[in-house]
Amino acid sequence: MNILETKNLYKIYDETSVPVHAVNGIDLVIKKGEFTAIVGPSGSGKTTLLNMIGGLDKPTKGEIIVNGVKIHDLSRRKMTDFRLKNIGFVFQAYNLIPVLTARENVEFIMHLQGRSKKERDERTENLLKAVGLGDRIEARPSKLSGGQQQRVAVSRAIASKPKFVLADEPTANLDSKSTENLLDMMEKLNKEEEITFIFSTHDQRVVKKARRVITVDDGKIVSDETRKTE
Question: Most buried in the list 34, 43, 88, 173, measured by CB within 10 Å?
């Protein structure tokens, strides 16, 4: 089942005399349950592509279809609502709300969605236990290590049961052990709950875990490899 598709996707910045094609005619299909890494050098277009897929930026031309919906045609308000219900995000800097506990950070999106308190409490506790933070549920971000904060961020991203999760350099601020633990956890969630993860990364440890690796350069896909992982 295709949950994401882009067709002839472009992002062109023309503020200067020489237009910059950050994304240059990308066609891409992501199926449910993929564990995909998008890689490429700085300036290759991978982050711009991720931002458009996530509805954070509009394409200059082309189509982005998520679960059958052409999100490039949505108004800003409708896009915000759609993103809230369908797309999860994990950021390099965690982006947790510092005054909220781990529980409250994970519950936040579900609260915006209007989920019942019972459902929020049950899903939050199950997720934080699943990522090894069952004893840190009431801790604020300042009391958690970087690896623990990123686990909370992943739990928050999947709490609302999105169609897919976009992870932009999620291991950039983590040490080797925290990176290994985070990736093992995400791989387990991918396999057990069929959560679709799409990474933008420079980290070869992420690439090694990925079952599909898409290389972007000069705004184009230059290779697309599906492979078995170790």
Answer: 88
